[in-house]
Amino acid sequence: YADEVRHLADVATERQPQTWKPANVPAQKLFRCVECLRDLELLLQMGSRLKSKVKQRRKLKIVLTPLHSLVEAIRDLANDLENNPDTLHRLPDGARELVPQIRSQLLSISKIGKGTLLSATRNKLSAHIDKDLSAEETRLLLNQADPAQIGLWLHTCISVLTDFSKLPVYFWSCEPNGDESIRILFVEPFVITLGVNALKRVNSILDVH
């Protein structure tokens, strides 16, 4: 972006002023999805290195928690894209009709809520172990969330999130020169750099890229 490649902020690192951070509501909701994906990526990479099938299965059981969070986060993003007036007026022609269809695609496969497999396995086996489940009931429930099923849930999430990420509704900001300026990305690839004073208030336009 006119100066160098910048990455999205990572909450697991020390503060990095030069990384892009969410600057509006839909960007914050998209960023939440990214954080879930980062957790999933790490767990799946670790699981792929395991030789033991039992250990791989246990790692996949842990995956259910960030996967469930990802579905929730994408659903929350979809709600903003459909219902937030500030977001709606930035959607291009035709997108308003497509967002509900894409959202339905997600929830028809990666269902969450009472009585759904993803929520049941996450709530009873992954986020914590249900005290009322017997060993056999636990095994049977886990067998339903097999690798193919988890892969389908994850594939659907990534497909939907890819479509949503293409919409021109996200604002991002960074501090390219420490505390003296702020850079804002409105619609890729256009960037504006603003000068800020000691009170963090904008006092000048420094550049438009």
Note down, in words, how this protein is organized.
The protein is an alpha+beta fold and 209 residues long. Helix content is 54%, strand content 11%. The protein has 7 helices and 5 strands; from the N terminus they run βαααααααββββ. The chain has helices spanning 25-48, 53-83, 85-88, 95-109, 117-126, 135-144, 147-165, and strands at residues 21-22, 172-174, 181-185, 191-196, 202-208. A 5-stranded antiparallel beta sheet has the order 1-2-3-4-5. It is elongated and about 65 Å long. The relative contact order is 0.15.
In short:
The protein has 209 residues and is of the alpha+beta class. Helices cover 54% and strands 11% of the residues.
Poorly predicted residue ranges: none
Helix content: 40-55%
Mean pLDDT: 85
By secondary-structure content and strand pairing, the structural class works out as alpha+beta
SSE string, helix = H, strand = E? EHHHHHHHEEEE
Rg (C-alpha, Å): 20 Å
| Main sheet summary | 5 strands, antiparallel
Please provide the count of β strands: 5
What is the count of helical runs? Answer: 7
Distance between the termini: 8 Å
Strand arrangement, largest sheet? 1-2-3-4-5
Coarse shape: elongated
Strand content: 5-15%
